[in-house]
Amino acid sequence: MLIDVELTDDPRFLRGIALFNDGDYLEASDLFEELFFEGVRDEPDFIRIFLQFSVGIFHAQTGQWRPAVERIEEGLRLVSANENDRGFDLVALAAGMKTGAEALRKKQIVSWPQIAFRAR
Predict the structure, then answer these.
(1) Which residues contact 46 (CB under 8 A, 6 or more apart)?
(2) What is the number of other CB atoms lying within 10 angstroms of the CB of residue 50?
(3) Are 49 and 75 in contact (CB under 8 A)?
């Protein structure tokens, strides 16, 4: 019997967020990818936001500028199409990722944003 667990209650999702916020983008992307393939309804597109951003930052860390910007831009498109933020501040996350992508294009040092809940 399968139990329908809300994505944001899944321990792997919560661990992925913690890893992202701790700067372990590769490990976070592995968890997000696992959840992406298991997702139902609107979950895959939501998870892909975090997957694209974490993979993009990992590419940036390894000096792969073009793939980094491409993944981040894909994440930004997903944020703009998202209709259910599940309580996360995707607007602030997207703004920080956009700033980061612009800094990458200019070969500047990037300070990546954290994933946070939306203020109530």
Answers:
(1) 7, 39, 82, 84, 86
(2) 26
(3) yes
Measuring CA to CA, how many Å separate 118 from each of 8, 70, 87, 89, 98?
Answer: 14, 26, 6, 4, 18
Q: What is the pLDDT of residues 24-37, one digit of tens each?
A: 999 999 999 999 99
Domain range for 29 is: 8-105
Reported confidence tier of residue 119, pLDDT bands at 50, 70, 90: confident
Please check whether residue 99 lies inside any domain of the structure.
yes
Per the structure, how many domains does the chain have?
Answer: 1
Indicate whether this model's pTM tops 0.90: yes
**Interatomic CA distance for residues 51 and 35, integer angstroms:** 9
Phi, psi of 38 (to 5 degrees): -95, -10
CATH classification of the domain holding 82: 1.10.3450.10
Q: Residue 114 CA to chain centroid, in angstroms?
A: 10
- C-alpha span between 86 and 95 (Å, rounded): 18
